[in-house]
Every structure is written in structure tokens, then in C-alpha cells.
Amino acid sequence: MASTTPAGLQIRPRHLDFNLPKPLPRHWHGGDAFKTHLFDSMSVLFPDGERFFIDSVRQFRDQISDPVLKEQIRGFIGQEGHHSREHLEYSNRLRDLGYDITTIERRAQARIRFTQKKFSPQRQLAATAALEHITAILADGLLQNPEALAGAHPAMARLWRWHALEETEHKAVAFDVYNQVCGSRKLLRRAMLMGTLFFFLDSTRGMLHMLKRDGLLWNWRLWRDGLQWTWGKQGIFRPLIGAYLDFFKAGFHPWQHNNLDLLAKFSSEFEPAASTAA
Hints:
Layout: H1 33-58, H2 67-96, H3 101-118, H4 121-144, H5 154-169, H6 173-181, H7 185-213, H8 220-231, H9 241-246, H10 260-266
């Protein structure tokens, strides 16, 4: 299928120093443990996950002849590499607070090693394209909905806006590479189902661990309010369901969800430090 990636879209890493607070406030998201650990648990998965994304795309880089896509791959690798480094530092801040981050990391690392050993390169790339769609719609929700980061520590909110911005920019790169070297929709849909299962399983496990360490695992008010904030009538995740399901449609491409307006709105926050080369 033809790519609908906007012409002229530039994908370049922004080399920023976020100066994450040290120590990190235990409940940096407005004093709310549920909101904080929802973000924390996803963040712990990113360093290893994004290195996997880079590796899966690199396996096919030499098969791509389109100079535009080749340049986008360079930008994708640069952005994901920087994301991995920043979220690794974020994980270290969580480790300093007494959370067992190492166990969470090892579980994710074991699954990645299994995937790389047992699955074909095409299937690994399909997994990357699927998970990039999940991160893209989460990024879109974060940038679209001010409630997602309302009350958060300014440095942490800035980190998440930066990550969301760059996930939006490169959301179709792995997808476009996959379509050029494989293109099987059946394999892509299967990868999405598996990726969704393990992403939410791993992030939920991490969240439960952190809440348990805080002594809040059985606080029913926290769960009531948190589930209302995420999946309730005005919940931050509820509007993303349709965008998620679009992935399973024949002929879907990530840039059919055209949110260039968000790039224009938020990129200026980081533009002074933007890299001039991928």
C-alpha cells in the first residue's frame, strides 16, 4: 500500500537534558499514586523495548531503497535511542525510591530475548509496528487531553510531552518498513494482539508492585478514582479505543490519524534544543 506519511515530515532527535528531580517525588503526578505509577510502569518498559524496536528496523535497513524512508529510519533510530537513555535514568530514580525495577526489567528482557531467538525478523518487525501504534495513540491522547498531565511535576510533564511528540513524528516508520519488506496484514494483526496483551500485562504488573510498596494496593478509593480517570466516561484512555481498532482495518496506515497540528503546537517547546542532524 502507499504510505500516507506527510510529505516533508522531518524526524530528528532532540538532544535535551531534562534534569529529572533527584530524589524523584514518590507521587509526582499531583500527589496521586495511581496516576504516577501508571506512567512509571510504562516508562520502565521503554529502555529495553525501544532498543528492540531499533534492532528490528535495523535488520531491514539495507533492503530499503527509498531515500526519504532511509532518512526517516535514521531519525527513528536517533529518537528511540535517546528515549531509551532518558527512561533508563527515570528507572534509576524509581530504583532509588526502593521499587524493584530490576525484576520488572528482567521480565521484559527475557521476553525480548525469546522473541529475537524464536521469531523471524519479519515477525519482530511486525511486533514493532504494532507496538509503535500503541505508543502513538497513547502519545496522541497525552497531547490532546490536558487532563493527562494536569498537576504533574513540571519536569516530568515536559519529559512525557517530549516523548509523545517524537512518538507522533515517527509513528509510521516501522510500519512503512514492514510494508516494503513483508506487508502481511494477518501477521501484523496477530502481532498487535500479542503486543497488546504483553504491554498491558507488564505495565499492570509494574503498577501493582509500586502500589504494593507504597502500601496502597488495597486502597479501594484510589482504584475507584484511578479507573474513572482512565476508563470512565471522561477517561483519558476511552477516546483511544477507536484509534486502536483502526489498526485492524484493511488498508490502514498510521498517518490516516493525521495529527500534524499537535506537532506544530508542541514542537516549539523543544525547538531551541532541536538537533540539526539525525
